[in-house]
Every structure is written in structure tokens, then in C-alpha cells.
Amino acid sequence: MGGMDDLYREQILEHHRTPHNHGVLAEPSVSLDGRNPSCGDVITMQLVLDAAGTITDVAFSGRGCAISQASASLLTDELRGKSADEILALGTPYVMELLGVEVGPSRVHCALLGLETTQKAIERWRSR
Amino acid sequence: MSAWHRADGSLDPRKVRAAYPILATRPGGNPLHYLDSAATAQRPKQVVDAVSNFLFTANANPHRGAYALGTAATDAYEGARARVARFLNVPATELIMLGSATEALNLVARSWGRANIHRGDLIVVTEAEHHANLIPWQQVAREADADIEFIPVDDRTGEILWDRLDSLLKLRPKVVALAHVSNVLGSIAPLAEIASHVHAVGALLSVDGCQAVSNMPVSIPELGADFYAFSAHKMGGLFSGGGLWARADLLAEMAPIETGGDMIREVRLRDATFAEGTQRFEAGTPDASGTVALAAACDFLDELGRAAIHEHETRLLARVLRELPDALPDVRILGTPHAEGRAGLVSFSSDLVHAHDLATILDRRGVAIRAGHHCAMPLHEQLELSATARVSVAPYTDDDDLDALFEGLRDARAIFSR
Ligand SMILES: Cc1ncc(COP(=O)(O)O)c(C=O)c1O
To answer: A24 CB near a chain B CB, below 8 Å?
Structure first.
């Protein structure tokens, strides 16, 4: 059960129980629903970006497993002050580092839902 | 019968398990507790042996070669079709062999549906259907500018509210499409009664039998269906394979949706005429090995006895239903609360532990369950759930598997109640 305790260790469970930046923003620059079609997890990612393309505020809502909710929560803690370009350059290793554990292949899509939705939201904002 | 049974005639899973080599493997280093047979059943040695025997002794292109081996291949293929037909108690001339249940359900919609559903016509399906028995009808409705109405589900349990059928039938649908056994709820639809109501208004009844055929006795003529689809890989056959039984007069009228070799009578440069009967729907080289495997799977299920299988599975499901609330106090069980009236599976959710997390935690003990929407997103939407956990059982499932399941559920509860 060692690996299990890693995956579901206190920090992840804590973010799952009381996710950070959870809720809805009054005036987001962009708001996007992300869905994991294979399992049904859904997330709404809301961003406020300034004219230079830097994230100034973020919130997410949705329902899903501990991994998708905790990784979205951990991610949103890191987004403020980052530029759109910086966020678009992030990938799987970054999310794994945030989670502090290697998520198995059957759950990677859960872990990535928050980041992928954020990146699509930024693309949407750019093409506005 | 005694090879697989106890003295009292009940199925002895200890004996049955010996026929499934995979159950002795240790994927991920744990004993395998496979509780996902509703997605894909494990294959008994008998099935794989039948396929290798066919491929090593009778392999040639069926319906073609004017040589002894070609005849052997044709006989094996047609003999296998006849065996599957006997399993379902229908004539082989009415049984179309296809690549999957999805193909079978698409054939009903795209052949019969396209020819018979016109602007303003009504199609009725349940809110609980597998996507394979929903989307093909959505497509037909869109193309024909026809309507779809839904037999609703209870928004707490997901149970299909069959007493709403009659009011929908007053709208005079052309067809009612539903699952014999829901792959999420596990509940057995009261088909004979439904069929008599459906036929009373002149509609047809198209049945998705995927989750029924391997878990209970199924004799199609007693069900009152007009179409009946099933899937080989849920019966112990190979991945490729499935079929559609169609009422003879409907089958005679239906046009093929795929054309090519093996389904024709005569072909000229600018047009062609098609073969009669089931052959018209089996374009290209048929999946002879898959059909031979399916026939062997039918042999094996009949050796075990489908009534004995159903009894065995009902006992296991009763235990799951009884012990789930202890293992996960906030559990929400979908479908009927009883094991009777179910076939093969139980789905549930818990606010404490999401289905995916459950599946991951259970995997650490070698317990394989399904988590997700099980290809029934609209049903989950109605229940306001993004995912459920599904436990499904088979002739080879035993109490050790359920012990491991409940231990794993207690692990999950402990982790998430920290
Ligand atoms: C109720 C139901 N219908 C249809 C299907 C699709 O069957 P197949 O995998 O043969 O296409 C399945 C299996 O996933 C099912 O459970």
C-alpha cells in the first residue's frame, strides 16, 4: 500500500477536501468547460488576464475524482503572475511535480484535466 | 453437468475458474479479482482452443474455395452461426453475424430505421441506454427530421419508469429501443409485457441484449422483440463478433448498409443485386474465427447452464447489495435494491470517494472494477453524477473476489476519512 499512500497522501486529500481557488469569478476574461470524455470528470476554469497576457486571477469549479480536483487546486495556486506563454509551455511533468507523485497511465488524464482546460481557455482568450 | 457443478447442481466457481487461465495471472503483482466482466468477459480455454483448432485445421476463405478445405471453413462458419442461433432459440437464417453489438444496433437504425422513419415520426428510447443504442437513433432522427422521446428514469436510483411507457405509446412511435439489461442499472426489463404494449400500437421493439445473454437464460421468441442485438466479447467470445437477430419479414425487407464482396447475387458495372437473407448484411470476408469462438462460448455457457449461472450471480449480487452499505456508509446504489430482477452487475456511487479513486485504490489489491459513465452519459446526467463504480460478476466470480472488493472499499473509506 506504499504507493497508494503516496497518491492519496495528506496534501492531495486536503486539496480535494478543501480545494483552493474554488468557485466562480464575477468577471472572468475567459471561462471554459473541460471534460474528460472517457470518465465524465468536468471542470470549469475561469481566468482573468491583464492586457499583457498575465494571469491576475483564477477560479475553478466542477466535479470529479480526488486526482482531478486536487491537481486543479494545486495548479490554480501557481497560476497568478504567470504569462499565457509560460502556461502554454507547461506539460505533464509539471503537473506530476505539483502532485508530488507519478500518477499511473490510467489516471494521467484526470491529473491533466485542469492544465489542459487552462491552456484551452488561454487559446480561446487569445483568439477572442 | 458435474464437471462444473456441486452435487446440488449449483455452479462451483472453484471448478469453473480452472477453465480460465487468466485468473491464475498476477497483473501488477496481485491475485486478479476481475469484477469487470460486463465490459469484457474472460475467455475460457475451450474458446481459445476452438479458435486455434479452426485456424490450424479448417482455415480458408468461407463461401469461396471450391476445394475441400474451403468447404471445411464454410461448414465451420455456418455451423457456428447455427450454434449461436440455437443458443438464442432462433433460426440461423434470421441471425446476422457482425463485428460487434455496436454494428448490430447501427444496422437496425441505418437499415430499418432509415427506410421506415420519416419526417415527424417518433422514436422512443430510455434515458438509460448505452450510447450504442442511442446515438444511431439520434442520427436517424436528425436525417429524417423525426422526433425522439425518452422513457424517463427515477432521478435517485436511475430505475427506468416503465409505467411512463404507455403515455409515450399514445404518441404512436414507430419503434421503441431499449436494453434487455441496463449496463449501468443491471435491472432486467420486463420485456414480454413491454412488447405487448409496444405491439398494440403497431410499433416495433428493438432490444440491446448485450448484458443479458451471458447472465441469464435468453430465448428470443419468448421476449417479443423484433430485433435483438448481442456482443461476443461479453459472452467469452473474441473481441470481434456480435450479431443481430431480426424478425424474418423485417430482415427480408431490409437493405444492406455495407456493400462489397460476399453479399451480392449479380454485379454489373453500373449496378448490382444483392444476396438473400443474412448474407446480404455480411459484406466482405466473414469473421469465421470470431464466430467459431462465439459458438464455443455458447457451448461453454450451456455446459455451465444459464439458469445455474444466473443463480450463482444472483447470490453474489445479493452479497454485494447487502454488504455495500457497511463498507461505504453513504453509498448510493443504482437500480433495484434487490438481487432478484438484476443480471450480472451493480453500480454505485459515494460522495466520500469518487468512483475513479475507488477503482485506483481497489486496483492495489488486484480488484478490477469499472469507473466512469459506462457509455451512458445521459443517464449519469439525469442522476447528477459524473461517474459511478460498477461491479460485475460472471460464472468464475467467487466469494474471494468479493472479500477482496470489500477489503479494498474499506481501504478507500479509511483513506478518505482521514
Ligand atoms: C448495453 C450495451 N450495449 C452495447 C454495447 C456495445 O457492444 P460492443 O462492444 O459489442 O460494440 C455494450 C458494451 O459495451 C453494452 O454494455
So the answer is: no
Q: Positive or negative CA dihedral for B334, B338, B342, B343?
A: positive
Q: Which CATH class is domain B13-43+305-416?
A: alpha beta
First to last CA, chain A: 48
pLDDT tens digits for B39-91? Answer: 999 999 999 999 999 999 999 999 877 899 999 999 999 999 999 999 999 99
What digits encode the pLDDT tens for the residues B220-235?
Answer: 999 999 999 999 999 9
Number of residues assigned to chain B? 418
Domain regions of chain B by residue span: 13-43+305-416, 49-302
Write down the CATH number for the domain with range A4-126. Answer: 3.90.1010.10
With beta carbons less than 8 A apart as the criterion, state whether B203 and B117 touch: no
What is the rounded CA–CA span in Å between residue B308 and residue B302? 10
Q: What does the domain layout of chain A look like in residue ranges? A: 4-126
Say if CB B180 and CB B191 are below 8 A apart. yes
How many degrees, rounded to 5, is the angle at CA B372 between CA A12 and CA A112?
45
Q: Is B100 in the pocket of ligand 1 (CB under 6 A)?
A: yes
Q: Output the pLDDT for position A3.
A: 54
Candidate from B178, B231, B294 with most ligand 1 atoms within 8 A of CB, to mutate: B231
* Enclosing H/E stretch for B112: none
Nearest Cα residue in chain B from A35: B386
Domain formed by B49-302, architecture: 3-Layer(aba) Sandwich (3.40)
Q: What is the pLDDT of residue B382?
A: 94
Burial B52-63 (b: 16+ CB within 10 A, else e): eebeeebebbbb
Q: What b-and-e string marks burial along B229-241, b requiring 16 or more CB atoms within 10 Å of the CB? A: bbbbbbbbbbebb
Q: Is the pTM for the entire model greater than 0.80?
A: yes
Do B360 and A106 lie within an 8 Å CB cutoff? yes
